[in-house]
Amino acid sequence: MSPSEKKVYRIAAIPGDGIGVDITEAAVKVLDKVAETNGTFSFTYTTFDWSSKAYLQRGYYMPDDWATQLRAHDAIYFGAVGWPDVPDHISLWQMILPIRQQMNQYVNVRPTRILRGTRAPVSQLQEKPGDLDWIIVRENSEGEYAGQGGTTHGHAENAVATELAIFTRVGIERIMRFAFETAKGRPRRKLTMVTKSNAQRHGMVLWDRVFYEVAKEYEGVVEHDKMLVDAMTVRMVNKPESMDTIVATNLHADILSDLAAALAGSIGIAPSSNLDPTRKNPSMFEPIHGSAPDIAGQGIANPVGAFWSAAEMVRWLGKGELDTVADQLMQAIENVTGEPKTRTRDMGGSAGTEEVTAAVCAEIGKVCGKQ
């Protein structure tokens, strides 16, 4: 295939802070190796320095026309944001949440399973790693992260702060429908809905009601059940094999997916996708581990979560045509995690970021070249 016939995917790269810079660089190397080996597509990148360091220098993370700039791309690849010199709520509300909300990325998908060579902290999962194989579907646009509320007399002893969780029928219905469709496409066809409607008697009662309304459309197709979020943490640890696809609110899924990553062996391997299912805006792909200031710049960050996120980006961009390529990338990743000499410290090894990246690129040449 000639270069002019290749599909070119335009990627907006936002390395951000800390280890986000290292793992984004690593992900780009892996993506380019996948594209080179496959030969039917390629990537071009525009890198945006929307970091905390830049924020401290100029007073803002993103310029006024940031949305226009991002919409010129097919997807967004994001590293991490957050630095001790900038309060977390500033970095969150001046970059990540505006992107998710204005790009209509109302679905956050977080797959979790135990990769080959990963040691799970729970004995049951060490013996039967296949018991943990979940897709967590997180409502990504409203709920507890809607931004409604305020502070009165903030600098006084009688300060009052309110934080309102917003739940709309439209927002709930679309995430439930996405979750049921996701479950429908999985082998077990099972969906667990997480709630706290016993205590949150308005928004979460509506959350439950809409779930059961949508569930009627999938009777006989998708098995479903309901769990209170506190009981869900116990079930995730004690009976991981009893779940497959999980749908939860913005806050609940954020917390539960970190627990899921820990159960799977390391938060460093966990990916996520922020999706606009309408495809009118670019979707964003990122590992969930954060900027990790304590290990930033040391070359020891685990890039596996970044690679897995890259695989999900390839899958999304291909609209079904690149599923095999994404699967091959995941095979290459597991070939590397399966070898003790190419595991990072958080996975019980001693390999650095560059060493793991080089190993994955070498495996891509072997795995993706078998076509």
From TrEMBL:
Concerning SMART domains, the annotation shows: Iso_dh (SM01329)
Which InterPro entries does the UniProt record give? ICDH/IPMDH, IsoCit/isopropylmalate_DH_CS, IsoPropMal-DH-like_dom, TTC_DH
| Annotated catalysed reactions | (R)-malate + NAD(+) = pyruvate + CO2 + NADH
Question: Which EC number(s) are documented for this chain?
Answer: 1.1.1.83
Q: Which GO terms describe its molecular function?
A: D-malate dehydrogenase (decarboxylating) (NAD+) activity; magnesium ion binding; NAD binding
Tell me the PROSITE patterns matching this sequence: IDH_IMDH (PS00470)
Cofactor(s) annotated in UniProt = Mg(2+); Mn(2+)
Q: What keywords would UniProt list here?
A: Magnesium, Manganese, Metal-binding, NAD, Oxidoreductase
Task: Write down the Gene3D superfamilies for this protein, in alphabetical order.
Answer: Isopropylmalate Dehydrogenase
Q: Which family does it belong to?
A: Belongs to the isocitrate and isopropylmalate dehydrogenases family.
Please identify the protein, giving its name as recorded: D-malate dehydrogenase (decarboxylating)
Q: What organism is recorded for this protein?
A: Friedmanniomyces endolithicus
